[in-house]
Design brief:
Number of domains: 2
CATH architecture of the largest domain: 3-Layer(aba) Sandwich
Distance between the termini: 48 Å
CATH superfamily of the largest domain: P-loop containing nucleotide triphosphate hydrolases
Subunit structure: Homodimer.
CATH topology of the largest domain: Rossmann fold
Shape: globular
Function: Binds and transfers iron-sulfur (Fe-S) clusters to target apoproteins. Can hydrolyze ATP.
Family: In the C-terminal section; belongs to the Mrp/NBP35 ATP-binding proteins family. Belongs to the Mrp/NBP35 ATP-binding proteins family.
Structural class: alpha/beta
GO molecular function, one term: ATP binding
Keywords: ATP-binding, Hydrolase, Iron, Iron-sulfur, Metal-binding, Nucleotide-binding
C-alpha cells in the first residue's frame, strides 16, 4: 500500500508540475508554489501556495487540477487547496489565511482587497454544533459521541464529524472501523448508532502517524465539510481537537456554525484552557451554547459515596463568571469508559444510568437553543 501511495504521489506531482508549466505568466497555476502532497489509501490532497491577491482568479484552474488528479488510476478522492502567502506589502501583523478553496472572513490585508466571503451553510445541514475544549484529556470526544447519539435517539437526523485529524478516535468509540464508500468525488459517511460519521480514522490505519503540515490539515477539514455526502441533517456535531489552532479557525471560516459547546473538567488547570476556548469562539463570532463539566464527580458503585476526584462545580462557576450557560454535569463512571472502549455509546447501552440521563438533559437544552436559533433566522 505504501508503494502504491508513493507512486500516486509522484504521478500527482508530475501532473501539478505540468499545470504550473502550462502558463508561467500566472494565468493558470504557473504562479503557485507546491507546498505539499499527501496520499493515503487513494485519497490525495495537494496544497498550493499563492499570493493572496491572485487566489480568487485561480479557482477555475484549481478545480481543473483537482479533476485531473481525480482521474489518475487509483485515486478515490482528490482535493487541491490554495493557501495564501503574504506579499512584502502586507502587514507583518496580518496572519496568512487560507484562500481560494479555503476563504476566511477574518483575514487582513490591503485596503483595496475585496472582503472575503462569509462562512456558508453546508447544503442540507440545518445546524452545526462545534464541541471544543482548550485542553486535551477532558473527554471531549466521549461527550461529542454521546450528544450526537442522544440527539438521534430524540428523533433528529444527526451527523458527527471528527475534526481531530491528528488523533481521530471516532472509529473506536463508535465500534465502526470500516472504510467509507466513495461515489464519484463524494465520500459516503459511515453509519452507526443512528448517526452518520466521518473521521480520518476511517481512512487510515489506526496506528498511522499523521505527519501533516497545517495547510494539509486545513484541507482535510474542508474536504470533510464539502466533499462528504452528509445528506439532509438536522444537526452536524463537530468534534474539535484540543486548543485554539488552525482547525478551529478553518471551521469558523468555511462553515456557518450555529453554536459551540465547551467541555471541561472541574479542576483549575482545565478551566484556564476552557476560558481560552470561550474567548476563541467569541473572536470568530460563533455563539456559545454553554459549558459542560465532564468527570464531575465519582459515585462508588458499591456504597454510593460521591467523591470529587477533580474537584466539583468549577465549570458551573466559570460559566457564571463568563456569562455563559451551564449545560450540566457528566459523572466519572467506569461503565462510560468501558463502553467507549467497546464502541458503544452509554446513551444507547445504558440510557437510564446517571451518565445517560445527564446527556439526555443536556440535549434537551441544546434542542431548545437550536429551535431559538431557527426562529431567529
Amino acid at each position: 500500500m505504501a508503494e502504491h501511495d508513493d507512486a500516486l504521489a509522484a504521478a500527482t506531482r508530475r501532473l501539478i508540475t505540468a499545470f504550473q508549466a502550462e502558463d508561467t505568466k500566472g494565468e493558470l497555476l504557473g504562479s503557485t508554489q507546491l507546498d505539499g502532497i499527501a496520499v493515503r489509501d487513494g485519497l490525495v490532497q495537494v496544497t498550493l501556495g499563492v499570493d493572496r491577491a491572485r487566489a480568487g482568479s485561480l479557482e477555475q484552474a484549481r478545480r481543473a487540477a483537482e479533476a485531473a488528479i481525480a482521474r489518475l488510476p487509483g485515486v478515490r478522492n482528490a482535493t487541491v487547496v490554495l493557501t495564501a502567502h503574504r506579499t512584502g506589502q502586507e502587514s507583518a501583523a496580518a496572519p496568512a489565511a487560507p484562500t481560494g478553496h479555503a476563504h476566511g472572513p477574518h483575514s487582513h490585508g490591503g485596503a483595496n482587497r475585496p472582503p472575503a466571503p462569509k462562512p456558508q451553510p453546508i447544503p442540507g445541514v440545518a445546524h452545526i454544533i462545534a464541541v471544543g475544549s482548550g485542553k486535551g484529556g477532558v473527554g471531549k470526544s466521549t461527550v461529542s459521541v454521546n450528544l450526537a447519539v442522544a440527539m438521534a435517539r430524540a428523533g433528529l437526523r444527526v451527523g458527527l464529524m471528527d475534526a481531530d485529524i491528528y488523533g481521530p478516535s471516532l472509529p473506536r468509540m463508535l465500534g465502526a472501523n470500516r472504510k467509507p464508500d466513495v461515489r464519484g468525488d463524494r465520500l459516503m459517511p459511515v453509519e452507526a448508532w443512528g448517526i452518520k460519521a466521518m473521521s480520518m480514522g476511517f481512512l487510515v490505519e489506526e496506528d498511522s502517524a499523521m505527519i501533516w503540515r497545517g495547510p494539509m490539515i486545513m484541507g482535510a477539514v474542508q474536504q470533510f465539510l464539502a466533499q462528504v455526502e452528509w445528506g439532509e441533517l438536522d444537526v452536524l456535531v463537530v468534534d474539535l481537537p484540543p486548543g485554539t489552532g488552525d482547525i478551529q479557525l478553518t471551521l469558523s471560516q468555511k462553515a456557518k456554525v450555529t453554536g459551540a459547546v465547551i467541555v471541561s473538567t472541574p479542576q483549575d488547570i482545565a478551566l484556564i484552557d476552557a476560558r481560552r476556548a470561550v474567548k476563541m469562539f467569541e473572536k470568530v463570532e460563533i455563539p456559545i451554547f454553554g459549558l459542560i463539566e465532564n468527570m464531575s464527580y465519582f459515585c462508588c458503585p458499591n456504597c454510593g459515596h460521591q467523591t470529587n476526584i477533580f474537584g466539583h462545580g468549577g465549570a458551573r462557576a466559570e460559566a457564571k463568571t463568563l456569562g455563559q450557560a451551564f449545560l450540566g454535569e457528566i459523572p466519572l463512571l467506569a461503565e462510560v469508559r468501558a463502553l467507549s472502549d467497546a464502541g458503544t455509546p452509554v446513551v444507547s447501552e445504558a440510557p437510564q444510568s446517571d451518565a445517560g440521563l445527564a446527556f439526555a438533559a443536556i440535549v434537551d437544552q441544546l434542542l431548545v437553543r437550536l429551535k431559538t436559533e431557527s426562529e431567529a433566522i
